[in-house]
Design a protein that fits this description.
About 75% of the residues lie in helices and about 0% in strands. It is built from 27 helices and four strands. The model has no long low-confidence stretch (mean pLDDT about 85).
Length: about 600
């Protein structure tokens, strides 16, 4: 079921990183027809796959059919992600929602609509999978319960994002400027994220158990036995709950929550019904092991680590794409809207980073944490044989093959073999603990290094230089493709101005003016440069005044009038400089102190000249 978490996160990344074009790729009618047509094709193909499999059930091996059901679900879930990506990037569905006022004010609501679309695709898969599932396991679980169990188990992964994004939307919608300005700064975003993450991690389990509709385990022998075991292990918790996943028909248990007040022990009714008391003890001991070995805390560390990794790797991969000519040429020659293709590449990069991190790095630790939790049974009992017999019952009752591992668990066969090895040699437990400690040390060292690189790329001098080279390379490539675009030369001039390359700044601005003589931004900037350049050899007072006058004729903004005043000043026209600066000060609403100081300078020069 953990794989569903990955699906939802990937879909969220696809949606969040998409930059819609100015115009959709198709008309509303064409988009609607294509959208409905794709859903029909997807539903028909999914139904056909499971219908064919259902016919094979009486003839085939139960384990092979179970594996095939899961394989088709995985295959079609990936297809659902592809279909969602087509909806976003191909059909530009988000473009048809951008003018809805409510979605404009609270963008999280629009995101929920599209996440709901993906849930609908998954519901189609699960609804189609129900037929062979019911026939294979002869269960009385209804189709509705089967689908809802899959959804309810997966969706809580979206709670943190929903609250984080939704609260930020509300803050930005309220008429208070201070919190908006704070959230717009990098420091504010970090503080907000860490505060929010801490809050969600602490109280999140309380919300999730309500969403799963968990109910307290009734008083009696089972509850008393679990409570006694928890006291023996020194585990504090809020409650012991029935876990109604798949109608409670799975032999499984869980534990969630970092602090006592919001920590819950979860068990299914099937676990209570099918396991012997000693076996149930072993399963609960396994879950206690996760808490005692601080696995839940490490999961939080791994999540923050992902932010560090993506923070660094994203920039490095973007620089690689930009500086690799064949890759960039492939993107530029695709014939698709440039913003769309760049957005798609960014999304793909983020998804690849996410998949590799959670599938392989996080998955490695999850598998070994599960093994460490298995061996925690020895901290409470002399033998793990009840846990071994539990694994065998899981295999027998579910039809699950004991040989099939997944990304977050070793296979049941591997877990049994390891526990049997521990039965003979307890030093295996110590070796496993040492392995995990060394792995965590290596991981933390790597994260610190990655965090340092990420900080330097985004806030250090190296990052600033790379960013400027990055932008310069893009602009020069675009100019090579469209040499008559004045805005590209304007942007290039701005870039060179910021890095004090004044010769190239003048060349870029002059070219932009040749192509578009009435751009007040370029006229003003070039006039200021000619009037005040640190390299006096590049100053040109007459040209500065000529450009400043043109800019002021087009737009009488305070900063443009200030440039005009400066241009008058260096040309010795002091009264005109004072007049222009007075005009600028009169209409200025911000940085008035600057304009007042400028006026004092010009008035002092005018008075001394008299």
């Amino acid at each position: 079921m953990f794989v569903n978490f990955i699906y939802f996160i990937i879909v969220l990344l696809i949606y969040a990183t998409y930059l819609p074009p100015d115009e959709p790729n198709f008309s509303p009618i064409e988009t609607s027809l294509l959208f409905l047509g794709l859903i029909i094709v997807f539903a028909y193909f999914t139904r056909m796959l499971f219908h064919r499999l259902e016919k094979r059930i009486p003839k085939d091996n139960i384990l092979r059919v179970d594996h095939k059901i899961n394989a088709i679900i995985t295959q079609q879930s990936v297809m659902a992600i592809v279909l969602f990506a087509i909806d976003i990037y191909g059909l530009s569905l988000t473009s048809f929602f951008k003018n809805i006022p409510l979605f404009t004010v609270i963008p999280t609501l629009q995101a929920l609509v599209f996440i709901g679309l993906f849930v609908f695709y998954l519901a189609i898969i699960w609804a189609c999978a129900y037929g062979p599932y019911k026939r294979l396991y002869i269960t009385d679980l209804s189709r509705r319960s089967y689908v809802l169990s899959n959804i309810s188990f997966s969706i809580p992964v979206l709670f943190p994002w929903f609250l984080l994004s939704g609260i930020a939307d509300i803050i930005n919608a309220l008429p208070f400027e201070l919190p908006k300005r704070f959230l717009s700064t990098p420091e504010g975003q970090v503080v907000y994220f860490l505060f929010f993450l801490s809050t969600v991690v602490i109280i999140g389990p309380a919300m999730i158990q309500k969403f799963w509709r968990c109910k307290p385990l009734e008083s009696g022998y089972v509850r008393s036995r679990i409570e006694k075991l928890c006291r023996r292990a020194g585990l504090e918790y809020s409650n012991i709950l029935y876990w109604p996943i798949f109608g409670g028909r799975m032999i499984t248990a869980g534990i969630m929550g970092l602090i006592k007040k919001f920590r819950y022990i979860l068990i299914t009714k099937t676990l209570v019904r099918h396991l012997e008391p000693e076996e149930m003890d072993a399963v609960i001991a396994h879950e206690i092991g996760h808490v005692k070995r601080k696995h839940l805390h490490f999961y939080l560390v791994f999540f923050i680590g992902y932010i560090f990794v993506s923070y660094t790797m994203f920039d490095l991969l973007i620089y690689f794409i930009i500086y690799t000519d064949p890759v960039y040429r492939l993107i530029s020659s695709s014939g698709i809207n440039h913003d769309t293709i760049i957005s798609a590449v960014f999304s793909l990069i983020i998804i690849i980073i996410f998949f590799i991190y959670f599938r392989y790095i996080f998955g490695y630790f999850m598998r070994n944490f599960e093994r460490q939790a298995d061996t925690y049974v020895y901290a409470l009992f002399p033998s793990a044989k009840p846990l071994i017999s539990t694994f065998k019952k899981i295999t027998a009752t579910t039809g699950q093959s004991p040989d099939i591992p997944n990304w977050h668990h070793f296979s049941i066969k591997e877990r049994i073999e390891y526990l049997n090895l521990c039965e003979e040699d307890k030093t295996c437990i110590i070796k496993q603990d040492r392995k995990i400690k060394k792995s965590i040390a290596v991981y933390l060292a790597a994260i610190v290094i990655m965090g340092g690189i990420g900080y330097n790329l985004n806030y250090g001098e190296t990052g600033k230089k790379l960013s400027k080279h990055f932008i310069e390379k893009i602009l020069l490539r675009e100019i090579n493709n469209t040499p008559d675009n004045p805005h590209l030369y304007s942007n290039l001039g701005d870039l060179y101005y910021n890095i004090n390359n004044y010769t190239e700044t003048i060349r870029a601005y002059e070219k932009s003016i040749d192509l578009k003589p009435d751009n007040p931004h370029v006229l003003n900037n070039l006039a200021w440069l000619y009037a005040t350049c640190d390299d006096k050899n590049l100053r040109n007072p007459e040209r500065a005044l000529n450009l400043a006058l043109k800019a002021a004729d087009i737009e009488k903004s305070p900063h443009i009038l200030d440039t005009l005043a400066e241009s008058y000043y260096i040309n010795g026209q002091l009264e005109e400089a004072v007049s222009a600066e007075l005009h600028a000060l009169r209409i200025a609403k911000k940085e008035r102190l600057y304009f007042e100081n400028q006026l004092k300078k010009f008035m002092a020069a005018a008075n001394s000249g008299q």
